[in-house]
Each structure stands twice: as C-alpha cells, then as structure tokens.
Amino acid sequence: MVVMMKGILIVLLVFLLGNVILLYLLAPRLSGRRRVHPFFGVKWAHRGLHDIKKGIPENSIPAFQAAIEAGYGIELDVHLTKDGKLVVFHDDDFRRICGEKGKVEETDYARMRTYRLSRTGEKIPLLSEVLRLVDGKVPLLIEVKLPSADTEVCRRLDEELQGYRGKYMVQSFNSLVLRWMKKHRNEIPRGQLSENLTRKPDTTHYALRFCVKYLLSNCMCRPDFISYKWADRKNPGFLVNKKLFHAPVAAWTLHGEKDLRAAKRSFDMYIFELNDVGGKNPRL
C-alpha cells in the first residue's frame, strides 16, 4: 500500500510539474491587457481598405487613404529590401501581386519601384511614405516579415518609428521579432501572430511552427496580445491564453458580417477585408 501511495504521489507531482512548465511556456506578458487596452474595439483594415474592383490594390497608398477616410485602423506588412529599405508588401516574392520573379529581401528598391501592384498603376510604397500619409490619424498594426534569423529589419523599423507620433502596435509570426522588441523596445505593444502552421505534413521547420502554432514560443518573447486566425480559434494554446491568462486577442481575417458579429462577442480586436463583406463597411 505504501509503495502504491508513493507511486501515485510521484505521478501527481510529475503531472503538476508538467502543467507548471506548460503554463510557463504559454504565458503572455501579464501586463499586456493594460498596454493593449487603448486598441480594444479597433477594426483593422487588412492590408488597407483595398478593393481591386475599384482599382485599389492591397498594401497601396489608395488602400491606406480609404481606410483613413473610413476611420479604420490599418494593418500592414513590412519587409526589408536588399538595399536596406522598409517596404510595405505582404508576400515573400512578387509573383502573386506584381507578376514578377524574385524575393523581396533579395531585390533592390530601385528595381522594385518599377513593379506595379495587381495590374494597376500603383507602386510598392515605402513605410516612410505610409507613415507620412497616416500621420497618427488612425492606429497602425505593423506585421514584421522575417523569413530568416536576421533581425536587422527590427532595428531599421525601430529607427523609422522613432519620430512617429501616432499609435501603433507590432506583430509577427516570427517570435524572433517579438524577442527583439522585448529586449530593445519593451514599451511597444507586441503581438504573436499564429494559425494552424502544421496543417501540411511536409511543413519546413516543423518543430518551430509547432511551437508557434500552440504558442509555446511565448516564453521567449512574452507577447502582449495574440493575433490568431479566426478559422483556427479552437486551438488549445490560444484558448489557454485567452481564457486563463486573459490575454488580449485579435481575430484575422474576418470574412463577412456573420464573422464580424461573432468575433465581437469573444475577441478584442478585428482584422477584416472589405472585399469579403460585399463592398460595404462592416457594422460592429
């Protein structure tokens, strides 16, 4: 009986220790809710308020101007070019949007400037151009693209934002970005982007993607908020952050009025696309 009781006690201790370690890995920054609270309720226009039917491509100056005029926050993406320029562009390469070959990080901005967005006359904007346009009129949600382990893009972004007086937050799928922000710009609200990153069995860097998918990488960057894909919102790591730690949460990308209404009941911030709500402003 004594041996059995000792065995049960050991199992319980191992179970408790395992859960403590798990919670340590999953925990966001506990002061994050206070830091992100000023952004609660913001509706972020995903890559600007773009509408290609009207000749307004994603991540373009007209898309950002339209978002400003509608009073929406702006979600945008930032890459670092080969010659050290910060450009606003989503994909890692130009094929889908520009119909050109090459990767953003391997291309000089002078060449990139000759490309056009989605067969319109619009060019790939510099972040500095977008900052001048927005000028604090609406908040910004800046997604940092980091396809490698080189965090030079973080340093350049920090330099670019030093003189900016508008409200903004930073988010990324790559936890190295958030770790850099934690170390060098801890006062800026930072968010972990995630989704079902291991959906495909042949996924590269499977272990890293697994950790980000379940938010186990939170231990290295302690994000202030979690930005999770709406369709994958039942992820257990996300639910622990949301329900146990009460981390601020943003839903992306919302499609249609039904999603928008549902997200308002359980999320704090909403990233949407105008094209998906029939060309009408979402009612939240």
Automatic annotation (TrEMBL):
Cite the InterPro entries for this sequence: GP_PDE_dom, PLC-like_Pdiesterase_TIM-brl
Question: Sorted alphabetically, which Gene3D superfamilies does this protein's record hold?
Answer: Phosphatidylinositol (PI) phosphodiesterase (3.20.20.190)
Does the keyword field hold Heme? no
Q: Does the keyword Transmembrane apply?
A: yes
Q: Name one Pfam family in it.
A: GDPD
**Domain spans labelled GP-PDE:** 41-284
Report TM segments. 6-27
Q: Record's PANTHER family?
A: GLYCEROPHOSPHODIESTER PHOSPHODIESTERASE, CYTOPLASMIC, GLYCEROPHOSPHORYL DIESTER PHOSPHODIESTERASE
- Protein known as: Glycerophosphodiester phosphodiesterase
The species this protein was found in:
[Ruminococcus] lactaris
